[in-house]
Sequence to fold (251 residues):
Amino acid sequence: MTRKKIVAGNWKMNGSLASNEQLLEGIIAKIESSSDSLVIVSSPSPYLGQVSELVKNTTVSLAAQNVSQHSSGAYTGEVSLDMLKEFSVEYVLVGHSERRTYYSETDSIVADKVKAVLESGMKPILCIGETLEERQAEQTLNVCVKQIDAVLNTVDVSNFENVVIAYEPVWAIGTGLSATAQQAQDVHEFIRKHIATYNANVAEKVQILYGGSVKANNSEELFSMADIDGALVGGASLIVDEFVGIIKAAG
Ligand code: PGA
Fold:
């Protein structure tokens, strides 16, 4: 089956009113309206209103980088699902390794967030992946299973038609050291087969992105792999020509 490719930019804690506008105008001017892939940008919370206006009536969709699992109330510093929806946010990154590592997001918090995002009608981009130590200890597949199963213990597998998975080996994020296309494909294929043990039909449909030092010059090979359905892009999503190059490679 052919799955639509997704190229999602994760701006992380970067940007300003001026640079966001420049970046988006550059991207929008250069992407082909005939492109079959879905382009998403994930902006920091304070800029969602601005970015939402800039992508209105374009083919670019908007994502948030995080959300609270709680609906409202005394959670100082947090952002709610309803707030995101007011700015036409369609996707939310959940469980990025930087959130897991620096902000102690456990598998159980990640599962609660995925559930809350789905219930709100938005789509989670569920990030999973192993650290270098885990890869060296040959725990890569076990880590991916543990992180996915935590979510599948909380939401029914049928929901995964609306979940995008991003496999991001932590050792490849921001290091310039991408996984090889074959290394990524091996894990993606394994993830799809694992989901198939719950529901084969859903497993065929679920979009699995690769993330970790994706650039214009390595994206084509990654996208040629059978189970790689796109990319979650950090650093290169802040550079017009790099991000557009990745979008073009996705077709
Ligand atoms: P990177 O980040 O492309 O800069 O490695 C990817 C990510 O963290 O999503």
About this structure: Residues 10, 168, 173-174, 211-214, 232-236 surround 2-phosphoglycolic acid (CB under 6 Å). The first strand starts at residue 6 and ends at 10. The radius of gyration is 17 Å.
